[in-house]
Amino acid sequence: MSPYSRRAFLTAAGAGLLAGCSGGDPADRADRAASTTPSATHSGGATGAARPLERSAPVALRIPAIGVDTPVVRLGLQADGSVEVPAVTADDRAGWYRYSPTPGQTGPSVLLGHVTVGKYGDGVFRRLDRLRPGDGITARLENGTTAEFAVTAVRTVGKKEFPTTDVYGNVDRPELRLITCGGPLTGDEYRDNVIVFAVLTPAGER
């Protein structure tokens, strides 16, 4: 694992993953998910070996199966150590957690998005749970290339059972994690997280 990747995993493990998914007041807040220390893991559903890409931050994300075509903002950590989430605005965007690998690098690149944005309506990841294995995801990178991924799994889990190891744990190939809220809405909070797992395809760079 590279020094950058190691720092990313340890930072994520200490902070946990937050996904701001308020269904009512569009305050820019987040809901804490459970956190554990990650260990080496490897998600299933491989679509074949793909050559890792050089580091380049994502600037846009396309998911044709659910009509997503969004710019990507960079997210870090808030003052309390929680993971930052995209601002709640009418022009909702996905965000890349900048302490994770960039899309196409070896390891899990993590992107977050809202399911709803309060008075503004649906969030950019509103239909994330409709993705199915084999669906394509394209990340456009800052260096002008694109990274092509294929969905391997979609999981809905309770926030108290958030699988930190599966999301942040080290993997030996380029993978992607897309995360939002889901499940029933209680008051202004969603009970669950929806997590999409994807792997870089052999023709992953264009």
Question: What do you see in this structure?
Answer:
- The chain is mostly beta strands and 206 residues long.
- It has one domain (3-36, 55-205): Sortase (Sortase, Chain: A).
- It is 9% helix and 35% strand.
- The protein contains 2 helices and 8 strands, in the order H-E-E-E-E-E-E-H-E-E.
- It has an 8-stranded mixed beta barrel with strand order 1-2-3-4-7-8-6-5.
- A hairpin with a 4-residue loop joins strand 5 (136-141) and strand 6.
- The longest helix has 13 residues, at 3-15.
- The radius of gyration is 15 Å and the shape is globular.
- The two termini are 25 Å apart.
- Mean pLDDT is 79; it is low at 1-20 and 22-47.
Task: Indicate the radius of gyration in whole angstroms.
Answer: 15 Å
Average pLDDT works out at 79
* CATH level 4 superfamily: Sortase
| The CATH C-level class name | Mainly Beta
Helix content: under 10%
Q: Can you name the CATH architecture?
A: Beta Barrel
Terminal Cα span: 25 Å
Structural shape: globular
Strand adjacency order, main sheet: 1-2-3-4-7-8-6-5
CATH topology: Sortase, Chain: A
The number of E-state strands comes to: 8
Counting structural domains, the number is 1
Residue windows where pLDDT falls under 50 for at least 5 positions? 1-20, 22-47
**What is the element string, with H for helices and E for strands?**
HEEEEEEHEE
Largest sheet properties = 8 strands, mixed, barrel
Number of helices: 2
Helix/strand structural class: mainly beta
What percentage of amino acids are in beta strands? 35-45%
